[in-house]
From TrEMBL, chain A:
The lineage of its organism: Eukaryota, Fungi, Dikarya, Ascomycota, Pezizomycotina. Its main location: nucleus. This is Protein SDA1. PANTHER family: HSDA/SDA1-RELATED (PTHR12730), PROTEIN SDA1 HOMOLOG (PTHR12730:SF0). It comes from Mollisia scopiformis (Conifer needle endophyte fungus). Residues 240-250, 518-531, 555-567 have a biased composition (Acidic residues). One of its GO terms (biological process) is ribosomal large subunit export from nucleus.
TrEMBL record, chain B:
Component of the RIX1 complex required for processing of ITS2 sequences from 35S pre-rRNA. Component of the RIX1 complex. Signal peptide: none annotated. SUPFAM superfamilies: ARM repeat (SSF48371). Pfam families: Ipi1_N (PF12333). GO terms for cellular component: nucleus; rixosome complex. Residues 133-230 form the Pre-rRNA-processing protein Ipi1 N-terminal domain. Residues 1-37 are annotated as: Disordered. It comes from Mollisia scopiformis. Keywords: Nucleus, Ribosome biogenesis, rRNA processing. The lineage of its organism: Eukaryota, Fungi, Dikarya, Ascomycota, Pezizomycotina. This is Pre-rRNA-processing protein.
Length: 753, 341
């Protein structure tokens, strides 16, 4: 079509953007013009509906532009455009397959726009888009719809959680998965749920239930999606959270400084205000209590049933079509569930037997899964043949070093979780490998040895037991652990709190001039006061001031005395404690040297105040930090940490291969490892320059020395000249002053420190 | 002087003979131009290798497709004029080269064509089509006519009116009785003439700001076509064919009613297979129905419009008088029927 000459007025007519702008300014005056356009839209729509596949948009303004225009101003004429959203919906649902792609995108975009203008509601929009997402063969449309659906769900949940909408969508997804288990369409349910889980929009058990159904589907892709979600969804969520918290607020101090220097304008002022607002907002966010987010594995309803069905459907079933990789994933999930929830799936262990040979592909994953599936309630009979088989197949002089170390590592990981799976002949045999020439094998065997020194020293030969274990056995403090026996638990960090309290009390008494220790008949007033303070604090925090008065009265003075003086004078006042606790106490005093930890009685004898709880949290954090920094901790604690590890992160094949991997590192890798965290040294520079650059990047200023060195020499000339003309006395005076000053430690001196 | 020595050497180089070697290909001369090329497709210049000319029917369909889908407007116009001459020069009783059912759907979108010459040529062509065939396709033609009537460009609007005029001449009954033909077309008229009524009743009566309608020349024409349209829909036709048919002898008196219907899709008004229709898209077969709907939705607006146009006088005033006459005639026997809805 050649250039068309149009009159000025007509030009205005054809300019829909212009008309849209005018309508926005003054909808009433332009009603008629809108109606004309709407009529044009309707006739174009009729033409389109008469033959959707062949209709081409001809003329000056295309159907697409008309739709766009009407969607933009529809909210000003609600009565006239009442049928517009439903028109779009029917066009999209009926003809999405044959629509021209641009028109299709425009219709989707217009629907979303109508939703944003609140002409239609979210549920209506999603109920239109979702069936198309599942049906359409076009990839571009699918990506567009997926993105739109996600963004709409996010926006409608942004201010407050839209429970109703979430529920309807979750039900739709659930039905999609359960209606036809063999179809690949369920992958969309998985994708949407995973994305929303990642962004912490869906954190409830319903979402987990959807994923559970996905994992139990018949289609490989859907199964993979569901299983991967359980194995990695939570990690993904945490990573995203870290990332989002990383993007820091603007530097307000810098901006203020710049405003002071640069030209003052309203714009810069506004910018500063915005920045301050943003900073305040982020700070507020930081101070908000962290929302409780349970991991998907914990939100699972009926994990036993889930694990059993997963196992029997995908692994035991000979008709299942999963390949090895997918099977491994499922196996990982099953074993993770078994380990985490301490489930009993006995047939799982015999399933492992045929895979435990060194020739089996990715055998380390199998070994890791086996170790993961072990917990202290697994019958040793089920595990013993497996351990035996691993020992026979992997650990021998003839086998390769990696194989032997992997086998030993696997056995150790199993035995950490269930020590009773080992018998003494096998153990003594395996421990002998600590003399191996290969480093990996040697460390693995040593690991096994040190483990059994802790958990079952009587299985070892006498000379292997080590000093503490031998003494423990002699004294009777190390007893053989029975199957199903649970350790007596306590509150984590309680002993730290107790210790801290005792220290505090001593400090106070020293301040008052009293002896450190409490006399037998002195009433501990300090602690009582402290107690009161703790509860008062609680009163201020909570509004329930009437009830809390009664709370304080519950603690009788005597009890407080007893609990506080546990460490020092245990024998004197045990009358009030119940008999069981008393017995334990007696035992404790007997074995005080042998036992490293004893269960603190703080929590059983008195009620912890909120102040106590806050302190406890602080101490716990401190302890975990010091552990992370690398302060040596007791061996038993290490063991416990090892056992708890799989609760958070599953055991991976890398853990089993670890030693073998260590040996295989090349020089480059080692160099890279050493360089790690030492900063970039891109160009060749002096150390001084590097330090300077680092300081600059941190926004730190120069030292006086540096300033002096950099000073323009013309500025220093005058002083230098003057120096030459001084009299002898003046020179000696300055020299003396210099010496004096350096002794004092600079001009201002460091007397205060 | 090193550079000059080098230059000398370079100059010499031009005249040196290249040495030929056994077993090697001959070196290319300096002025050799590589003329080989690669191409992903091969274009054949000569499109047809047959020596005898294509048949007239195949040529007709070729031009038909040119007219409907060519990008250049001169080509479209030329193709249309070819089709027109073909159809005009056809001997009287010979069949059409292609049936109307194929031709019409291809050419109707041209009502909205941007080029004026194409649209006038299209109208010329349409006038040559057999009436009976067009009557069956009035509905699809009306779709495009309505789009043209509400089009942004004034020229397209006036040309669409011309097409409607033709259609009313050819098949007035079908135009007003087909689904959507009555109410939707009236609505298009209203919006075209600026008499449109909004659903929202506001107290404001604002003149059009961005000025869609009422360009002076075309307004009387619009009034006249509207009058024609209303006449087709509202005024009773006096000499009906059915009256003649009834006059048969007694046993065959009602036989007409039991015969296979002569028109296509005789039960269209039952709408057995299509999607459900609303008030706008409904078929209004009876004159009374049309009167009722017209009275309910449009009469007031049309009356005020006519009054204003009458006051304008001139050509528009005369046209308005014609329209008023048709209105009077059409609504004369309409007594506000019990409006049950």
């Amino acid at each position: 079509m050649g250039k068309k000459r149009v009159g000025a007025l007509e030009k205005v007519d054809a300019d829909l953007a212009n008309l849209q702008y005018k309508i926005r300014r003054d909808p009433k005056s332009y009603t008629e013009d809108f109606l004309n356009q709407y009529g044009q839209y309707q006739s174009q729509r009729d033409i389109f509906l008469a033959s959707p596949s062949t209709a081409t948009s001809t003329g000056i303004v295309s159907f697409r532009d008309l739709i766009d225009f009407v969607a933009h101003v529809a909210d000003y004429f609600p009565a006239d455009t009442a049928s517009f959203p439903s028109d779009l919906k029917t066009i999209l649902t009926l003809h999405h397959a044959e629509l021209e792609s641009e028109l299709r995108e425009k219709i989707v975009g217009s629907l979303v726009l109508l939703r944003r203008k609140e002409v239609i509601d979210s549920a209506e929009l999603l109920n239109t888009l979702f069936p198309i997402l599942v049906q359409t063969p076009s990839k571009t449309l699918r990506t567009l719809l997926f993105q739109k659906i996600l963004s709409d769900l996010r926006t409608s949940n942004s201010k407050s959680i839209n429970h109703k909408l979430n529920k309807t969508i979750q039900t739709a997804l659930f039905n999609l998965l359960t209606s036809d288990r063999a179809s690949a369409k369920g992958i969309w349910a998985v994708k949407i749920t995973r994305e929303l889980w990642k962004r912490q929009i869906w954190t409830d058990s319903k979402a987990v239930e959807i994923m559970k159904e996905a994992a139990l589907a018949d289609n490989e892709k859907v199964i993979g999606g569901g299983v991967r979600f359980f194995l990695g969804g939570d990690k993904e969520r945490e990573e995203l959270e870290d990332e989002s918290s990383d993007d820091d607020a603007p530097d307000v101090g810098k901006m203020k400084h710049q405003i002071g220097i640069n030209k003052k304008s309203r714009k810069s002022k506004q910018k500063l205000e915005e920045a301050v607002k943003k900073v305040k907002k982020t700070e507020k966010k930081k101070q908000q209590p962290h929302p409780l987010n349970f991991s998907a594995l914990h939100l699972l309803h009926d994990p036993q049933g889930f694990a059993e069905t997963l196992f029997s459907k995908h692994l035991q079933n000979s008709k299942s079509k999963l390949n090895l990789e997918q099977k491994l994933l499922v196996l990982q999930l099953v074993s993770r569930l078994v380990g985490l929830h301490k489930l009993t799936v006995i047939s799982l262990y015999s399933y492992f037997i045929k895979y435990l040979t060194p020739r089996q592909p990715s055998v380390t994953s199998f070994l890791a899964s086996l170790a993961q599936a072990t917990h202290n309630l697994v019958p040793p009979d089920a595990l013993e043949p497996l351990v035996q088989k691993i020992a026979n197949e992997f650990v021998s002089e003839a086998s390769a070093a990696e194989v032997a170390s992997a086998g030993l590592n696997a056995i150790r990981e199993i035995c950490v979780r269930q020590p009773l799976a080992m018998n003494d002949t096998l153990l003594q045999d395996l421990v002998m490998y600590r003399k191996s020439k290969d480093k990996g094998t040697m460390t693995a065997a040593k690991g096994l040895l040190s483990l059994y020194r802790e958990v079952g020293a009587d299985l070892l030969k006498k000379r292997d037991r080590g000093k503490t274990a031998t003494m423990g056995i002699k004294a009777g403090s190390i007893k053989e652990r029975r199957f199903g026996e649970e350790e007596v638990g306590g509150i984590e960090g309680l002993e730290l709190l107790e210790q801290w309290k005792a220290d505090e009390r001593k400090r106070k008494r020293v301040e008052k001039g009293l002896p450190e220790e409490l006399g037998p008949d002195e009433v501990d007033e300090d602690s009582e006061d402290e107690e009161q303070k703790g509860w008062e604090n609680w009163d201020a925090e909570s509004d329930a001031s009437d009830d809390s008065g009664g709370w304080i009265n519950v603690d009788s003075d005597d009890e407080i005395n007893i609990s506080d003086s546990d460490d020092d004078k245990p024998a004197a006042k045990k009358v009030k404690l119940d008999t069981l606790a008393g017995d334990e106490e007696k035992e404790n005093t007997d074995k005080d040297q042998v036992l490293e930890q004893k269960i603190s009685k703080l929590a059983t004898t008195k009620i912890l105040t909120p102040a106590d709880l806050a302190k406890l949290q602080e101490l716990r954090l401190e302890a975990s930090l010091s552990k992370a920094v690398g302060k040596p901790s007791s061996r038993a604690a290490k063991l416990k940490a090892l056992m708890d590890k799989h609760a958070d992160d599953g055991l991976t094949a890398e853990d089993i291969e670890l030693a073998a991997k260590l040996r295989k590192t090349t020089k480059e890798e080692r160099v890279a490892l050493a360089r790690e965290g030492k900063g970039e040294r891109g160009e060749h520079k002096s150390t001084q320059a590097l330090r300077r650059a680092k300081k600059d990047s941190e926004g730190k200023s120069t030292t006086n020395r540096e300033k002096a060195r950099k000073k323009n020499f013309l500025m220093t000339l005058g002083k230098a000249k003057g120096k030459g003309k001084r009299s002898l006395k003046q020179v000696s005076g300055t020299l003396k002053a210099h010496v004096e000053r350096s002794k004092r430690g600079g001009k201002r001196g460091n007397v205060g420190q | 002087m090193g550079s000059s020595a080098r230059k000398k050497k370079e100059k010499k180089k031009d005249f040196q003979k290249t040495k030929l070697k056994v077993g090697k290909t001959k070196a290319k001369p300096d002025n050799f131009t590589d003329t080989s090329f690669k191409s992903k497709s091969i274009t054949v210049n000569q499109q047809s290798l047959t020596t005898n000319a294509p048949s007239s029917s195949s040529q007709f369909s070729h031009y038909l497709s040119l007219a409907s889908s060519s990008k250049s407007d001169t080509q479209r116009r030329d193709a249309l004029s070819y089709l027109t001459t073909q159809l005009a020069s056809k001997p009287v009783n010979t069949p059409m080269p292609l049936p109307t059912a194929i031709i019409l759907p291809k050419l109707l979108p041209l009502i909205l064509d941007g080029s004026a010459s194409v649209r006038t040529q299209l109208l010329k062509f349409l006038r040559l089509l057999p009436d009976a065939d067009v009557a069956d396709r009035a509905e699809s033609a009306l779709l495009y006519i309505r789009a043209g009537m509400t089009h942004l460009a004034a020229e397209i609007r006036s040309d669409a009116l011309a097409v409607l005029e033709w259609l009313l001449e050819v098949a007035d009954d079908d135009v007003v009785a087909c689904p959507g033909g009555w109410v939707k077309t009236l609505k298009s008229f209203m919006s075209m003439m600026g008499w449109a009524v909004s659903n929202t009743t506001s107290k404001w009566t604002a003149a059009s700001k961005a000025s869609f309608g009422k360009s002076g020349k075309s307004f009387p024409k619009q009034l006249l076509v509207l009058a024609q349209f209303l006449k087709a829909g509202l005024v009773e036709v006096q000499d009906d064919f059915s009256v003649k048919a009834v006059r048969t002898s007694w046993p065959m008196a009602n036989s007409q009613n039991f015969m296979i219907p002569t028109s296509s899709n005789a039960f269209a008004h039952l709408n057995l297979f299509g999607s459900s229709r609303d008030e706008e898209g409904e078929m209004y077969i009876d004159r009374e129905d049309r009167q009722r709907v017209f009275e309910k939705n449009f009469l007031a607006a049309v009356n005020t419009g006519v009054e204003i146009a009458k006051k304008e006088g001139g050509e528009a005033g005369r046209a308005a008088t014609v329209l008023a006459k048709v209105l009077k005639e059409g609504m004369a026997d309409y007594s506000a029927v019990d409006d049950t809805q």
